[in-house]
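As a warm-up, study this chain.
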Amino acid sequence: MARFDEDFLLGAATAAHQVEGNNTNSDNWAQEQMKHSSFAEPSGIACDHYNRYAEDIALMAKAGLNAYRFSIEWARIEPEEGVFSEKETQHYRDVIRCCKENGLEPVVTLHHFTSPVWLIRKGGWEADTTPADFARYARYIAEQYGSELHYICTINEANMGIQIAAVARQIFQQMVAAGKVQVGVNLEDLMKGNPLLAKENLSAFGTEKPATFVSPRTAHGDEIVMQAHAAARQAIREAAPHIKVGWTLSLHDVQAVPGGEEKAKEEWDQEFTHYLSVMAEDDFLGVQNYSRTIIGPDGSLPVPEGKEKTQMDYEYYPEGLAHVLRRVAKAEPRPGERMGFGHFLSVIPICLFLMYAGNILGSLVTSLLHSLFGASAANPLLDFAMQDSLLLKIRNFFEKIGDFFENLWDKITAVFQK
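Now compare it with the structure written out below.
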């Protein structure tokens, strides 16, 4: 029977807000307390993982796992802007130590859906200030735990807001067309609740429409998420260069029926392809797949009749994971292709050649003049020959070529040294 290599990591994953409990400084907690909340119930103590993590980690080890991906709750670590909690910093240090004591590789996620309330009050995941705020937090984590970690995932399911925006558009179209959505929510009743929820949002976040991480995301918000990831990656590498950095994406197994090929391509680009440029410097990509999406000429099609569904009403389709992994593997940059320079590597020898050739040719021209007119710097014949002469222009031309490619080479090597 085939076996995984000994260094293959097989683990479990959690999200802090979903398991720890009493995450009182986060945006989700604030929303859960609202009378007109979209959450079905408050998280409360969840499964009390904050206090029972040692028991839970021991169970993972007993089950034969050797890795644990858990998220550090930003709202705990930095409950106020720029103020870091020593108590919570120690808590997660204890979690990391517990993982190691049980033979589990700790894989830290910096952001798993929830954010500090203060961040949302500043504009949240649509604000231009968020990438810098996230980078400050990422740097703190790397400085505090860098010596204990090998992997950091910056953002879990970074494309979630884009997917939610797509679902929201689809539901809205259904409501406009039929007056209700498929699950039976009445459009009129839904709209009646909005003013009341807006008032509660204004009180909690200073805005009627808070831009949380799982809010329907604009194109600008999508760019903010990518900038935040890149800024955090740089901060981590500056603080702890040995740590491998990446993020995760939620990817459907996008399948087209005849006539749906173009829309399926658009769907895949929205979920995955347009992120390739920001991922080019990453050390890994986390892939999360739950089902497939079948695309027809008019967009997404319902789950085929008679197919088994999950509790989330997704089609039960385990083959999707293998399909997505293979598709992503073909598109993902290979090692050595960071920053999108993989295809540019072939140009580097040319840069080196022109850099040195330009300087050498410039020196040869100068040597030729010296041999013709004498080597003395005060030689009037040499001065005369060099003033506005064709030979001087030739020498300067080649030396400028050399300088240009030397500067270009310096920039290329600086990128790779990052």
